[in-house]
Design goal:
Chain lengths: 161, 263, 788
């Protein structure tokens, strides 16, 4: 076991980990931040996406030890300071961009990374960016719509409800 | 995963020293290695992470070539190569998904040499030089079949030097599940000739389609490929997602498309 | 002006707040103090005899608590099957044992052989590798038809062969159907496969068993769609724990799609092991493990014949289907290819004679059971594909052929034993033609062709049967359970309400939509009503959520219980208002005396029920809580018409979905936003089945598509924005809400339109020799068909 220290959602944290401890395990098991989910073991589903030093990464495909000293943001750190939903989270609720909620944390984290890079993405750009986030419930329609709405675009004209 | 010690050296020398130990293994971005470890298909005693070695990161242009540090992520290449080598930047921008591109590295991809990976096509298709901590290896000598390369135990890719072509393009036809290349073709046109490298298709890993290179050298146009027979499908991968003959057919289609896009 | 409260409002989902902030409570988020972890050692061969298991070295490994094998389960019940099918000759289906851990033989890749309980998951996995297992390989039975040949290896040694049942429906129709087909003006025949799928809810299954020795109580936290069903099956049939000593909790569940209905070995194991070890035992499936342990779906091989007269009226349908059961009978597996499939074979059409034959077959593969739609997609796919093929053979318009044969009078008794109560198939088709812009297709095709692409249009209809019931009928059909549901409405003293429902929400939004109904009935704000679900200790009973039954069955129970509440509240109000009960009216949360301005508010009545100082104690009890069980009189029959437009790249065979339109009739609708979302998700799964998903075994029984590296899940760029409409509404006639259910429609109705569109595209490009492509129509398959 070795000690690892990092900043998670603005708070300094540390813990004892093995070499093989994944970042997602450190978050879920050591810190009990269970909002970050594990949906596969081949780095494809994206339920575990978090931000490390401002970039979206799959927390199931990075060792905790590699995040030493890093700034990590998880879904628990996304709401506004007063606890209200942030723009992206609110758009997901407004446009029914989630059903079972399991993929949702990863979707929100990927959406946040996309809008940072590309503040007004087209439908095709949103769909392309979500290549690494699988949702089994929504058929993606309302996720894409929510992300476009969160970017300030008018989604009122998108295909019938 | 079996347990191992994770070390994060900050220099190449430290990394090489750490890799001198038995069953030590380098860790690039881990986007292929970590899933492999989860399946317990590898049992290193020590993983030497290269991600903290600043000297291994970055993209710069020098002497008509793009020099990319071995630990440079796909995301960085996609951004920083866009001006000088758009064909490569575009390839990098379509590897995996955004989160994978923020971790996966060019050195890791080339060292692993997955038969369906994208970078081997760019390296072979540009006649790149693979620079390691101990030597320089020409791409034509580097790739030695599926998951096999000229790298020795403990050898680290420090830089990849890719001659910048006049024009280039990479066409990937995705395997529907993994989104790796079912077939990928990288075409690069230089003053002294054309290189066509194919990934995803062959049981022997990435290869050059020499008939197409010859045809395109004299006439860099999609029509020049049209007249060729598709390469022989008998040595090509045949699986759930496509037969060898389908892959062989795609090699020709994608080569045409790459040439058209690069013309 | 759209409503903003109650039935018909697109109320935003209240559960979203916790899911969007990482505050959901999924089973893997449940950790019990002192818990141990279990790893299952699973068979890596499809079929073999276990000649040796030596756990001694593994037991000495660090952290190992105990290792269990099949021996530990001798004398303990196996996993039960909840449905018995009777075959064509009146004999019961064959029902082999299904041990919790393998006993003597392994029968599929993934069959659990041993379970290692250790202090950590990593130690459990390490120790599992040290277990010495010797398995004598036996020939694997994979192909269904080969499995039925004489001399085929037997999956179960104690059975005569690999045939589970040979079912005929309606057997009495057989002769007449054969005659009609032999005398028909035209017969279209199609042989096809309904590909095996893996449900793949994004949350893998998890089970945490706990045991309190102090009061001899077991608790199972599990990823289930129906915790009471698990309590009944596991308690009564596997472990022998009475209900009052067994609590089953399904907290937030990350999608189910059918595969979380069933009772699994891991649930029984964790509950059993916790009792043995007197400490909690937790299992979390990996995705790779899910591929070889979650029940799979579909996997039918069918020949269908459609007979038409000289005027193109359908005269008879005959089908022969081989349905894969896998190695064991999963909980409801036998019902899927029979009662959920044969009864739907009439579709939306007035075909007078139908005969369905199904041979259910054991193979050395993962058990197959219900997956979103369950039997109904298989029926719809055959029927709507064969109709399309017939239209092409006859040179008639496929929409016109369907319209000509539509059922137009209701109620309608089909020749396959069900009675549709309502529907308006021409109206849904009209709506489809409008939202799909069928008229604009020719121009879009021309535009595609300019770009060297082939464009195809595929249309189909579907009929679904939801809320399978009534219980006395399903009992005759072989169900070993009732199919009612239950709800308790608990009104608190200040007027807020908790509704305990037997349905389970794992994405369907019950926490939002169920309160809409109660709020509407009482005229109060939705925010005063909360739903409690997923915990057998809190809810009277419930059969859970599957088969698009929640609002139609459990919602009806909730309505009945709320009606009882209203009746009692009126009595209280009458007392408070010193009026006759018959004169009391309830509107907008106020009880008033008809024709007067005297009224009393909801909250005053509820307070009186709990502080009964001024209360008719001689007539009614204090308190305000009512329970109702609801057993429907019939199925509900949602229907719809779907259209898919594809573009096909003739150079690569790649098909892309350009447009998809769905016009559904779900009867009355509680929350239109949620209903649309249900359709969207179903469409993506149907498109996934049609173009991407393929659970494939090789001839040795190895699962080839064993992870997302080879099993293609639909992603955001595989699908378009969908046009969905549910404005055609013919309310169900036999439930109080007039609702029909919407959960599975998208997955049932979409695969045939996709394949019909692919065939249409190929024909437009001159590939008229291609009359069928099996799903998934992957690029390589399409290309091979074009060049075959």
């Amino acid at each position: 076991m070795t000690k690892v220290s990092m900043t998670v959602n603005g708070k300094s944290v540390s813990g004892e980990v093995e070499g093989r401890t994944l970042l997602v395990q450190f978050l879920r098991e050591n810190l009990r931040l269970t909002g970050t989910h594990v949906g596969c073991d081949t780095s494809q589903c994206g339920a575990c996406v978090v931000h490390v030093d401002g970039e979206a990464v799959k927390a199931c495909t990075m060792f905790a030890g590699e995040a030493e000293g890093a700034q990590v943001t998880t879904i628990e750190g996304m709401a506004n300071a007063d606890g209200s939903l942030n723009t992206i989270q609110q758009a997901f609720q407004d446009h029914h961009g989630l059903q079972c909620g399991f993929c949702t944390p990863g979707m929100v984290m990927s959406a946040a990374a996309l809008l940072k890079e590309n503040p007004q993405p087209s439908e095709a750009e949103v769909r392309d960016y979500l290549e690494g986030n699988i949702c089994r419930c929504t058929g993606y329609h309302n996720i894409v719509k929510a992300i476009m709405a969160a970017s300030g675009q008018d989604v009122g004209k998108i295909a019938a409800e | 995963m079996y347990n191992f010690e994770l070390v994060t050296p900050s220099s190449v020398d430290e990394a090489v020293a750490a890799l001198g130990e038995e069953d030590a293994q380098p860790l690039g971005g881990g986007q292929t290695l970590i899933p492999t470890l989860k399946q317990r298909l590898a049992m290193p005693t020590k993983l030497v992470s290269l991600s903290r070695i600043e000297a291994l990161k970055g993209v710069k242009s020098e002497g008509g070539a793009l020099l990319i540090g071995g630990a440079t992520t796909h995301g960085t290449v996609a951004r920083e190569a866009a001006g000088q080598f758009p064909g490569l930047a575009d390839l990098a921008a379509h590897i995996g998904d955004p989160a994978v591109r923020n971790r996966g590295t060019i050195g890791g991809s080339l060292a692993n040499n997955d038969p369906s990976a994208c970078y081997p096509a760019a390296a072979l298709g540009t006649g790149a030089t693979i620079v390691t901590n101990s030597r320089e290896i020409a791409a034509d000598d580097y790739f030695q079949g599926m998951f096999a390369t000229a790298l020795e135990e403990g050898e680290i890719i420090t830089e990849v030097r890719l001659p910048i072509p006049e024009t280039s393009n990479y066409q990937k036809f995705e395997q529907p599940a993994s989104r790796f290349a079912l077939v990928g073709v990288f075409v690069a046109k230089y003053a002294d000739g054309v290189r066509v490298a194919v990934t995803g298709a062959s049981n022997d890993g990435v290869f050059r389609w020499s008939e197409a290179e010859a045809a395109l050298a004299s006439n860099f146009a999609a029509d020049a490929v049209e007249g060729l027979s598709a390469p022989d499908g008998s040595g090509m991968i045949s699986d759930l997602h496509g037969s060898g003959s389908y892959r062989a057919h795609l090699v020709k289609v994608l080569t045409k498309r790459a040439v058209a896009a690069a013309s | 002006m759209p409503k903003d409260n109650g039935i018909g409002a697109s109320t935003k989902r209240r559960e979203d707040v916790r899911f969007l902030t990482g505050a959901g409570n999924y089973t893997d988020d449940v950790n019990v103090y002192g818990q141990a972890y279990v790893h299952f050692l699973r068979s890596d061969v499809a079929h073999g005899r276990i000649s040796k298991i030596d756990t001694s070295a593994a037991e000495a490994m660090p952290g190992v608590v105990r290792i269990f094998t099949g021996k530990d389960f001798e004398g303990i019940g196996g996993l039960p099957c909840g449905w018995q099918v009777t075959d064509r000759h009146g004999a019961a289906m064959k029902e082999p044992g299904h041990p919790v851990l393998a006993q003597g033989k392994v029968r599929h890749v993934g069959d659990p052989i041993a379970a290692v309980v250790a202090e950590s998951l990593a130690e459990a996995r390490d120790a599992a590798e040290a277990i010495e297992v010797e398995i004598e390989d036996l020939p694997a039975v994979v192909d269904m038809k080969a499995a039925l040949e004489s001399g085929a290896a037997k999956v179960h040694d104690d059975l005569d062969d690999n045939l589970c049942y040979d079912w005929g429906f309606v057997e009495e129709n057989k002769e007449a159907v054969d005659k009609a087909i032999s005398e028909a003006a035209h017969v279209t025949t199609l042989e096809l496969k309904n590909n095996r799928l893996v449900a793949n809810p994004m949350e893998p299954r998890v089970a945490v068993g706990d045991y309190s020795a102090a009061n001899d109580e077991s608790t199972l936290f599990t990823t289930s769609q129906n915790p009471h069903v698990i309590r009944l099956l596991m308690g009564a049939f596997v472990l022998g724990i009475p209900e009052h000593k067994l609590r089953v909790v399904a907290p937030d569940v990350g999608g189910g799609f059918g595969t979380k209905i069933f009772h699994y070995a891991e649930e029984a194991f964790c509950t059993f092991a916790a009792r043995q070890l007197k400490r909690a035992v937790k299992w979390t499936s990996t995705r790779s493990e899910a591929f070889m342990s979650d029940a799979h779906g579909r996997d039918h091989v069918t020949k269908i014949e459609l007979a038409l007269d000289a005027d193109n009226n359908f005269t008879a349908i005959r089908t022969e289907t081989y349905a894969n059961m896998g190695a064991y009978l999963s909980t409801f597996a036998p019902s899927v290819p029979t009662w959920l499939h044969g009864t739907l074979m009439a579709g939306n059409y007035k075909t007078p004679l139908i005969y369905v034959n199904v041979k259910a077959v054991f193979t050395n593969t993962v058990p197959v059971d219900a997956y979103r739609g369950a039997g109904r997609p298989e029926a719809t796919y055959q029927l709507e594909r064969v109709i399309d093929k017939a239209a092409r053979e006859l040179g008639v318009d496929p929409i016109a052929l369907r319209r000509q044969n539509f059922i137009t009078e209701f109620p309608y008794a089909t020749p396959v034993a069900v009675e549709y109560d309502t529907g308006d198939y021409p109206a849904t088709m009209d709506k489809l033609e409008e939202i799909a812009d069928i008229k604009g297709f020719a121009a879009r095709r021309a535009e595609s062709e300019k770009r060297g692409k082939l464009r195809g249009l595929g249309v189909n209809c579907y009929i679904e049967a939801c809320g399978i019931a009534p219980s006395n009928l399903v009992g005759q059909l072989g169900a070993r359970a009732g199919l009612y549901d239950a709800a308790t409405v608990r009104v608190n003293a200040t007027g807020s309400i908790s509704v305990m429902v037997g349905a389970h929400s794992h994405g369907q939004g019950h926490e939002t939509s169920f309160p809409q109904v109660v709020a509407e009935m009482l005229g109060i704000d939705e925010s005063m009503v909360d739903i409690v679900h997923g915990d057998s200790s809190k809810i009277p009973f419930g059969m859970g959520t599957y088969g698009s039954r929640s609002i139609a069955v459990c919602g009806s129970a909730m309505v009945r219980a709320t009606e009882k509440i209203i009746n009692k509240a009126k009595k209280i109000a009458a007392h408070l208002l010193e009026a006759s009960e018959a004169d009391i009216e309830l509107k907008d949360g106020q009880f008033s005396v008809a024709g007067t301005d005297k009224s009393v508010a909801w909250g005053d009545v509820t307070l009186a029920a709990y502080v009964p100082h001024n209360y008719p104690l001689e007539d009614i009890e204090p308190g305000l809580e009512e329970t109702a069980f609801y057993d429907p009189a019939n199925f509900t029959y949602p229907s719809g018409a779907y259209a898919c437009e594809v573009e096909l790249d003739p150079e690569t065979g790649k098909v892309t979905i350009e447009r998809f339109a769905a016009a559904d009739d779900f009867g009355n609708i509680i929350n239109p936003m949620i209903v649309s979302g249900q359709v969207h998700g179903g469409l993506a799964q149907g498109i996934g089945q049609a173009l991407l998903e393929d659970c494939a075994y090789d001839e040795t029984g190895q699962l080839i598509s064993a992870s997302y590296m080879d099993y293609a899940m639909p992603r955001a760029d595989d699908v378009p924005f969908y046009a969905v409409d549910h404005s055609c509404q013919t309310p169900c006639t036999h439930n109080p809400l007039g609702v029909k259910g919407c959960g599975e429609a998208g997955a049932i109705g979409s695969p045939p339109s996709v394949i019909n569109a692919v065939i249409d595209a190929l024909h437009s490009g001159g590939h008229s020799h291609v009359t069928h492509i099996d799903m998934p129509a992957s690029p390589s398959r399409v290309w091979a068909a074009m060049h075959g």
